Amino acid sequence: MQLQAYLTDNQISDADFAALIGLDRSSVNRIRNGKQTPSAEIMRTIAEKTRGAVTANDFFGIAA
């Protein structure tokens, strides 16, 4: 699942998700919009905080 879809489906703002994963809102916005690829550490954190709904593969368009 793409991060944008996850945030929309769960009605989570960029600011709220940023606080959850330890980034600033603008970084989450860039990641969500595909303008920035998160580091491996942040990808792991995103996968953990989304309970596996968003994985590293999702950032590279790899189907699970």
3D structure, described in words:
The chain has five helices and no strands. The protein is mainly α and 64 residues long. The chain has one domain: 434 Repressor (Amino-terminal Domain), CATH 1.10.260. Helix 2 crosses helix 3. It is globular.
Query: Helix- and strand-based class?
Result: mainly alpha
Low-confidence runs of at least 5 consecutive residues: none
Structurally, the number of domains stands at: 1
Tell me the span between the first and last alpha carbons.
10 Å
CATH architecture: Orthogonal Bundle
In angstroms, what is the radius of gyration?
10 Å
What fraction of the residues are assigned to beta strands by DSSP? under 5%
The CATH superfamily title? lambda repressor-like DNA-binding domains
How confident is the prediction overall: mean pLDDT?
95
Overall geometry = globular
- What order do the helices and strands follow? HHHHH
Note the main sheet.
none
Regarding CATH, which class?
Mainly Alpha
The count of strands amounts to: 0
Number of helices: 5
Q: Helix coverage percent of residues?
A: 55-70%
CATH topology: 434 Repressor (Amino-terminal Domain)
